Automatic annotation (TrEMBL), chain A:
Residue ranges constituting the ABC transmembrane type-1 domain according to the UniProt record: 69-259
Membrane topology: Multi-pass membrane protein
Main location (coarse class): membrane
Gene name tied to this protein: ugpE
Example of a GO biological process term: transmembrane transport
Function noted in UniProt: Part of the ABC transporter complex UgpBAEC involved in sn-glycerol-3-phosphate (G3P) import. Probably responsible for the translocation of the substrate across the membrane.
Natural source organism: Ferranicluibacter rubi
GO cellular component entries: plasma membrane
Subunit annotation: The complex is composed of two ATP-binding proteins (UgpC), two transmembrane proteins (UgpA and UgpE) and a solute-binding protein (UgpB).
Top-rank taxon, per record: Bacteria
Keyword Zinc attributed: no
Lineage: Bacteria, Pseudomonadati, Pseudomonadota, Alphaproteobacteria, Hyphomicrobiales
Record field: transmembrane: 12-32, 68-92, 104-128, 134-154, 183-204, 238-259
Family to which this protein belongs: Belongs to the binding-protein-dependent transport system permease family.
Full protein name: sn-glycerol-3-phosphate transport system permease protein UgpE
UniProtKB/TrEMBL annotation, chain B:
Family recorded in the similarity comment: Belongs to the binding-protein-dependent transport system permease family.
Localisation: Cell membrane
Gene Ontology CC terms, in alphabetical order: plasma membrane
Boundaries of every ABC transmembrane type-1 domain copy: 88-299
Keywords linked to the UniProt accession: Cell membrane, Membrane, Transmembrane, Transmembrane helix, Transport
Organism: Ferranicluibacter rubi
Biological processes, Gene Ontology terms: transmembrane transport
Lineage of the species this protein comes from: Bacteria, Pseudomonadati, Pseudomonadota, Alphaproteobacteria, Hyphomicrobiales
Name of this protein: Sugar ABC transporter permease
Automatic annotation (TrEMBL), chain C:
Native organism: Ferranicluibacter rubi
Gene Ontology molecular-function annotations: ABC-type transporter activity; ATP binding; ATP hydrolysis activity
One annotated GO biological process: carbohydrate transport
Similarity-based family: Belongs to the ABC transporter superfamily.
Cross-referenced PANTHER family: MALTODEXTRIN IMPORT ATP-BINDING PROTEIN MSMX, TREHALOSE IMPORT ATP-BINDING PROTEIN SUGC
Alphabetized Pfam families for the sequence: ABC_tran, TOBE_2
GO cellular component: ATP-binding cassette (ABC) transporter complex, substrate-binding subunit-containing
Protein name: ABC transporter ATP-binding protein
Membrane topology according to the record: Peripheral membrane protein
InterPro entries documented for this protein: AAA+_ATPase, ABC_transporter-like_ATP-bd, ABC_transporter-like_CS, ABC_transpr_MalK-like, ABC_transpr_MalK/UgpC-like, Mo/tungstate-bd_C_term_dom, P-loop_NTPase, Transp-assoc_OB_typ2
Keyword Transmembrane helix set for record: no
Principal subcellular localization: membrane
Length: 273, 309, 386
């Protein structure tokens, strides 16, 4: 009776987990199967003939998969660096400095939190088109150079930094920039880590904006590349398609499994913080 | 930190002047530090919002030579536009499926996971994995899973002795199928939010409830868990509805809007970026924004000061 | 129905490698106020939780009112518990908090459901509940707070709500887990009196867990003093103070702490400290032992006769607390031994100019503990020091 009561939740969770994980299983399994086996629809985990090399090389050869991944890295890192560079000083100023317009800026930041990028896409697109900047890395990154969420998050975190230490550092001759970057930010490393995860995951997985400003295959980040790839393939070779999907999903999944705590904190911090 | 001498031991300056110059320096620093953010806020948020408002009352088309003020015509047109209305009702249907299942299944999973001890980390990973995965890639995988002849889902359905289901060709199943993927993706996210809420409930309350006579777990759930999770549940519902109204990737991969399966954002994308009906798309964007704003004001209030009893 | 006896037989409990309860036998009489007292980690809270049914013992049996309940769910034991954190439901008003135990017991499941619950014809029961809630609230003088939420109450008020939730029905016994430890000192003293009055008025069985010996001494009918998973002594506050069964009990009970003097027992049973005969005798083992002397049983020997026979000490410090004066003395024979002497503040200190005095003690109130910490018999051979 008690054993049953203990096992039932695990059984239910296991059943659910199978559904949750089945797409991953099928994706990886198909990516190492031969085309003939794909048509058999067998659930057996060990393929009869191991076609991983063919599938993955086809995914890498038919479409520039490596290029997509590189684009993803460039775009994600570019965005992250700019977000941190702009948000940290602003958050520090909002949290620890007094200057005219401080309250207005804070209100604007909070108001901007409510506005999704999809709402701004149209005018930003028109602006970039007029400036002849479509199909550039800059176009893919520019709308995200400012993260109001980062400002908000760092502002919350910086506020709890003791004023006495800042005062003392000023008297010790630290410049305001040093105080901001070397003292205060160091006290908020968990927030920085969480935001890094949040930003990288969001932009690695984003499709909407790249789809709007990029039509050049050579500039496509992974999700857009995947979309091109799926269109090109039209169902002919699922092994290669799944190999491509595996390649695109793998970086985030591996990072997630490596730093699970940070990932969950980073992705859900919009909710829990 | 090192012990620092107070102002007293510094070279003596007239007090007022020194505090003035310090204030001025702080002000200058504040303005300098926030200048990049202010500039970007203007360029990315404020100016585009103004432009959007202007576009929405014109017949502007990207590349067109002339531009004409047409008042609220775009908005009136939107509510007579069959495609837009269909997209709107599709999105509402999608949200109506994703919100209850995405929220309450997640609550159920969170309750079960919360009750486990050693295996908790494993279940967290298993259910959270879809959240991290690139949705475009996973939508492609789902397309394959649901394939009428090659997909394992239909193979299983046939094996059980039922007729195969054409998830991705029967028009009336398109939105529910996408909702299924939406639920699959959002479940782990919501589960983690609920788990955080559950962990915050004091064990004493459950024990007090047991001594107060709450014998069954349903009684304890109704007396303690459900009311204590109230703010979390509210928040999860709001976040889930916002993300449901932004559904885009699954449409882009699975249907591209065929058979009348457009969602709000996809219709908007087509009008604005494929057909270049900038003015009309601006009006649609404002409608979309209004929906999201109503939903996210609740979210921002929660972010700003956590709801507490 | 109310005021039942609670019987514990050979209760054992282990958390991982630590055995926190090592075979507890305890009979709590109906209607008595029994305190479980001891240092943190002695197992007193675990024992209370086993009585409540929140933990189950690895071995042994719990009986309430003669009926065995070892495997009975806490909700069916008819016990009320007051938690250290009060454990008030934060989303409920004070009224709903107090009503919860009644709603759970008197209303059927269907009527307790949110929203639809009100549709069931249970207004008679509901009215009875309202009456009982108001009676309990009146008893604790919180009638005016019934519509507030716990977050709008002070610590003392929350405490009263927790008590009202306990007394609103007539449980077999009240279990209290350090209920006063979150209150400030003044309020704590006041609530002690109120709890005693409440106990008298209800005539119910109270099992009260505390680490504060003053609470235990002032409130209880009997005290079970626990240490390392065992009951060291069970008795009235007076017995624990005047006849401590072990050195642990003697150390724990009393403020300031009992003075401990290392002594020797020779083959004749004579007791001496640092070679000085104390005029006391015991039976049994020879060798080192400990003599316990309460501060009020020590005095400064002023008359000429005993002056040279007392314990020679140097006064280090003298503090007056209202009516009492406490003098901290250092034994000349062994400077590591400190003795505290309590005098009335009006008495003459009687200290020589170099600070040296001789201490006498009331021999019949001295306590002797053997090397195994157990109390040993003591007879006064000669009242040399008093």
């Amino acid at each position: 009776m008690t054993a049953l009561r203990k096992l039932t939740p695990h059984a239910v969770l296991a059943l659910g987990a199978i559904v949750m994980l089945f797409p991953f299983y099928w994706m990886v399994l198909t990516s190492i199967r031969s085309p003939a086996e794909v048509f058999d629809v067998s659930f057996w985990p060990i393929p009869k003939s191991f076609d991983a090399v063919e599938n993955y090389s086809q995914a890498a050869g038919q479409v520039p998969m490596a290029r997509f991944m590189l684009n993803g890295v460039i775009v994600c890192l570019g965005i992250l660096v700019m977000q941190v560079l702009t948000a940290v000083p602003a958050a520090y100023a909002l949290a620890k400095l007094r200057f005219p317009g401080r309250r207005l800026l804070l209100s604007l930041v909070i108001a901007a939190l409510c506005v999704p990028i999809q709402a701004l896409a149209l005018p930003l697109f028109v602006g970039l088109a007029k400036a002849d900047l479509l199909n550039t890395y800059f176009a893919m990154m520019a709308p995200f150079f400012l993260s109001v969420f980062a400002i908000f998050l760092f502002h919350q975190s910086f506020r709890s930094y003791p004023n006495e230490i800042i005062e003392a550092a000023r008297l010790d001759g630290f410049s305001e920039l040093e105080i901001c970057w070397r003292l205060v930010l160091r006290g908020s490393l968990p927030s920085l880590a969480a935001f890094t995860v949040f930003s990288l995951v969001a932009h690695w997985n984003d499709l909407y904006w790249p789809m709007i400003v990029v039509s050049d295959t050579n500039l496509a980040p992974p999700p857009l590349g995947m979309l091109f790839f799926a269109d090109v393939e039209t169902g002919a070779n699922y092994g290669a398609l799944m190999a491509g999907a595996t390649l695109i999903t793998a970086p985030m999944l591996v990072c997630f499994l490596l730093v699970r705590r940070h990932f969950i904190a980073g992705i859900t911090m919009t909710g829990v913080k | 930190m090192t012990a620092v001498p107070t102002n007293m031991t510094l070279p003596v300056k007239p007090g007022v002047a020194s505090s003035n110059s310090r204030d001025r320096r702080m002000m200058r620093n504040g303005l300098m530090f926030s200048a990049p953010a202010v500039f970007l806020l203007l360029a990315i948020y404020i100016l585009p919002m103004l432009l959007l408002a202007v576009f929405s009352v014109t017949d502007y088309q990207l590349g067109a030579l002339s531009i004409r003020f047409i008042g609220l015509e775009n908005f009136i047109k939107a509510f007579h536009d069959a495609v837009f209305l269909r997209a709107l009702s599709n999105t509402v249907l999608y949200a109506a499926l994703v919100i209850p299942f995405g929220v309450f299944l997640a609550l159920g999973v969170a309750l079960l996971v919360h009750g486990t001890k050693r295996s908790r980390a494993f279940w967290e990973v298993a259910y959270f994995l879809p959240v991290t995965a690139t949705l475009v890639a996973m939508a492609t995988v789902w397309q394959f899973l649901l394939h009428p002849s090659l997909g394992p889902v239909n193979a299983a359905i046939k094996w059980l002795g039922f007729e195969p289901v054409s998830f991705l060709s029967n028009p009336s199943l398109l939105i529910p199928t996408m909702a299924l993927i939406g639920i699959w993706q959002v479940l782990g996210f919501n589960m983690v939010l609920f788990l955080a809420g559950l962990t915050a409930i004091s064990k004493d309350l459950y024990e007090a409830a047991r001594l107060d006579g709450a014998k069954s777990s349903l009684d304890r759930f109704l007396t303690v868990t459900w009311p204590m999770l109230g703010p979390t549940t509210m928040f999860v519902i709001v976040t889930t509805s916002i993300s449901a109204f932004k559904v885009f990737e699954t449409v882009a991969v699975l249907t591209k809007g065929r058979s009348g399966s457009e969602t709000l954002l996809f219709a908007l994308y087509l009008e604005g970026f494929e057909y270049s009906n900038t003015g009309y798309a601006a009006a649609l964007t404002l409608i979309f924004l209004a929906i999201v704003l109503v939903l996210s004001i609740g979210q921002t209030l929660h972010l700003d000061r956590k709801v507490h009893y | 129905m109310s005021s039942q006896a609670i019987d514990l037989r050979n209760i054992r409990k282990r958390f991982g490698p630590d055995e926190v309860l090592k075979g507890i036998d305890l009979s709590i009489r109906p209607g008595e106020f029994l305190s479980l007292v001891g240092m943190s980690g002695c197992g007193k809270s675990t024992l209370l939780r086993i009585i409540a049914g929140l933990e189950s013992p690895d071995q042994g049996a719990v009986a309430i009112g003669g009926g065995e309940v070892t495997n009975v769910d806490p909700s069916d034991r008819n016990l009320a518990m007051v938690f250290q954190s009060y454990a008030l439901y934060p989303h409920m008003s004070v009224r709903e908090n107090i009503a919860t135990p009644l709603r759970m017991r008197r209303l059927p499941m269907s009527a307790r459901l949110p929203v639809v619950g009100g549709l069931f014809g249970t207004s008679k029961i509901r009215n009875a509940i309202t009456e009982d809630v108001e009676r309990a609230a009146g008893m604790l003088q919180i009638g005016h707070l019934l519509d507030r939420k716990p977050s709008q109450l002070s610590g003392g008020q929350r405490q009263r709500v927790a008590l009202a939730r306990a007394i609103v029905r007539s449980p077999a016994a009240f279990l209290m887990d350090e209920p006063l430890s979150n209150l400030d000192a003044k309020l704590r003293a006041h609530m002690r009196e109120e709890l005693v009055a409440l106990h008298r008025r209800l005539g119910a069985t109270f099992v009260y867990v505390t680490h504060d010996q003053i609470e235990a001494l002032t409130m209880s009918d009997r005290i079970a003093l626990m240490s390392e998973g065992r009951i060291e002594q069970l008795g009235t506050p007076d017995e624990l103070y005047r006849q401590p069964a072990t050195l642990t009990v003697a150390r724990f009970i009393g403020s300031p702490s009992i003075n401990l003097l290392p002594v020797d027992v020779d083959s004749a049973g004579e007791i001496s400290a640092y070679g000085q005969a104390l005029g006391l005798r015991t039976k049994g083992d020879t060798g080192p032992a400990t003599l316990g002397l309460r501060s009020e049983d020590l005095f400064i020997a002023t008359d000429g006769l005993s002056l040279h026979q007392g314990l020679a000490v140097k006064v280090l410090r003298s503090e007056t607390h209202g009516a009492d004066r406490y003098m901290t003395c250092q034994l000349l024979a062994d400077p590591t031994v400190r003795l505290t002497v309590r005098q009335t503040a009006t008495a003459k200190p009687g200290v020589a100019s170099d600070g040296t005095v001789h201490l006498g003690f009331h021999a019949e109130r001295a306590h002797l503990f053997g090397a195994n910490d157990l109390r040993r018999p003591l007879t006064v051979r000669e009242r040399v020091l008093a």
